[in-house]
Amino acid sequence: EGQIEVLWDSDSPAIAQVGLIADESGQTKVTIWEKSNAPWIEEGEQVRIHGAARNWYEGRVSLAVTGWSTLHFPERGRWWE
Questions:
Q1: Rounded to an integer, what distance in angstroms lies between the CA atom of residue 18 and that of residue 46?
Q2: CA 81 to CA 64: how far, in whole Å?
Q3: Predicted TM-score of the model (pTM)
Q4: pLDDT-based confidence at 77, cuts 50/70/90?
């Protein structure tokens, strides 16, 4: 679980979104593939990712959201907001 720090445009039509997710241990690149049909994420949003594929990007681990992944948004839909 972490907060979406920044999102940027991808040159690939196969990628829906790409950005950085961060928690107390640091930042990790996250790629959401178009075919995953994952819900849209926004900068500053808290998200929990289950079942993401782990890859290496520039010597660091990265996450890929695929059709097997699920996203949970702990702060979405809270009645008091």
A1: 15
A2: 30
A3: 0.87
A4: confident
Domains and CATH numbers, the chain: 2-72 (2.40.50.140)
Q: CA-to-CA distance for 34 and 59, rounded, in angstroms?
A: 25
Tens digits of residue pLDDT in 18-27 = 999 999 999 9
Alpha-carbon distances of 44 from 22, 55, 56, 60, rounded to whole Å: 10, 24, 24, 22
Determine the Cα–Cα distance for residues 37 and 52; give it in Å rounded to an integer: 13
Query: Any idea what DSSP says for residue 69?
Result: -
CA Rg value for the chain: 12
